[in-house]
Amino acid sequence: MSNKDDIRKFLVSRRANVTLAQAGLPDFGDERRVPGLRREEVAQLAGVSVDYYTRLERGNIHGASESVLNAIARALHLTDVEREHLLDLARPASASSVPGRTTAAVTVRPSVQRVLDSLAVPAVVYNARQDLVASNLLGRALFSPHFDSDRPNMARFIFLDSRAKDYYADWPLACSLTAAMLRYEAGRDPLNAEITELIGELATRSPQFRKDWADHDVHEHRTGRKVYGHPEVGGLELTYDVFEMPGEPGLSISTYTPDEGSESADKLILLAAWAATQEFGSGRSALEA
Fold first, then answer.
1. Which of helix, strand or coil describes residue 255?
2. What is the mean pLDDT of residues 27-53?
3. What is the Cα 255 distance to its own chain's centre?
4. Which residue, 41, 60, 61, 158, is the most exposed by fewest CB within 10 angstroms?
5. Closest-CA residue to 36 (of 59, 6, 14)
6. What pLDDT is recorded for position 281?
7. Which H helix or E strand runs over 274?
């Protein structure tokens, strides 16, 4: 399976993002046809010949040493995640890899579910293609619009569900980060049939996804803040933290916490009460109590 086009577009897009000032190169005021650095400038910064860098940028990257790729990453000011993505793109698919491989299991062990249920904050478990495979009660309440689907998937909701623009306060950012996370995972596991299938579905059905995918950004969810427009309790500003599960390759736990004493903390209490009424089948909303 050739990924020359992905390599070419990724390196070209990263080169376009670096200014002469960032690279520490003099600006002689000459007009540039394209933004960012020229190939010869990247080659100079990386300590390789222009011909060699040109071959790399054309996608002929397999066999390049890690030291050369790290030099290219430094020249292009790549983030740690972008550097890792470049290394992933340079690795040919393993001979032991089987085309059509799928993602991690879509369930968790009972002990993991008990851990989720013991947490006092919203928590969900998701896999590489962003299927929501498990949650605690508060996590299911926080992402209740997503769980309306028989196959809850974060990416599919963000790009294909009309409610997403109201649910995510910064929907364009949610879209760009989601596309970047899928590109990162696709680079790590290029033979994963389910990730490839999801990317194809989104590219076919969502103009926004096509736009964000074309940026060739990569992102790995670790920690940050998000604002949600929950249909029951309104705006929630929460910090998310992602924890890998060594015993469950491909699965991660994400928790969501408010600042202590904040309005969002009070709203989470309301959300927990609403979730309890849904769990026990009460027809009366907790918000009406």
1. strand
2. 87
3. 16
4. 60
5. 14
6. 64
7. helix 263-279
Cβ(124)–Cβ(139) under 8 Å? yes
Nearest to 130 by CA among 158, 91, 162: 158
Q: Degrees (nearest 5) of the Cα angle 56, 71, 8?
A: 25
Structural contact between residues 249 and 104, judged by C-beta atoms closer than 8 angstroms: yes
Of the candidates 168, 183, 173, 171, the one whose C-alpha atom is nearest the C-alpha of residue 213 is: 183
Q: What share of the chain is helix, strand, coil (3-state, %, to 5)?
A: 50, 15, 40
Q: Which of 143, 128, 253 is nearest to 186 (CA)?
A: 128
Is residue 124 exposed (0-12), middle (13-18) or buried (19+ Cβ within 10 Å)?
A: buried
pLDDT at position 284: 42
Q: What is the mean pLDDT of the chain?
A: 89
Task: With beta carbons less than 8 A apart as the criterion, state whether 127 and 106 touch.
Answer: yes
CA distance linking residue 281 with residue 39, whole number of Å? 63
CA distance 86 to 123: 31
CA angle 14, 2, 97 (to 5 degrees): 110
Contact 152, 143 (CB under 8 A): yes
Span 92-146, pLDDT tens digits: 654 334 445 555 556 888 999 999 999 999 999 999 999 999 999 999 999 999 9
SS3 5: helix
Strands (E), the chain: 123-126, 132-135, 223-230, 234-244, 252-257
SS3 label, residue 111: helix
Q: Reply yes or no on whether the pLDDT at 260 is more than 50.
A: yes
Percent of the chain at pLDDT > 70 equals: 91
Q: In Å, how far are 98, 142, 227, 245, 281 from 256, measured between CA atoms?
A: 36, 9, 11, 17, 25
